[in-house]
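Listing S7. Sequence submitted for prediction.
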Amino acid sequence: MANFLEPKVKRYTEIRDHHRWTTSMTADTQPPIVDHEDIAKVAVAAFQDPVAFHRRAIGVASEQVRIQEMLDLIAEVAGKPGYFEAVFITDEEMEA
């Protein structure tokens, strides 16, 4: 979730400037979130045992949470409970 902290959060201007994230995902979607430290752990393991990782695709996810839950966690850690809002657009809104 380091992508939601400075300086990387600058890529997400809607979250930074308007405190909301508009998404086409549904409220129940739980996207996999990965932290750079978890990626590093897998990379270290691959370097330490290249035979075990040879020609393998490895999926890495630190956790899966609903979008609003993720935003609530970020707000809580930032000391701003309820600061961020997830906005879920409908299929009709996407087609407009």
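Caption to Listing S7: primary sequence and predicted structure tokens for the chain studied. The chain has five helices and four strands. The radius of gyration is 17 Å.
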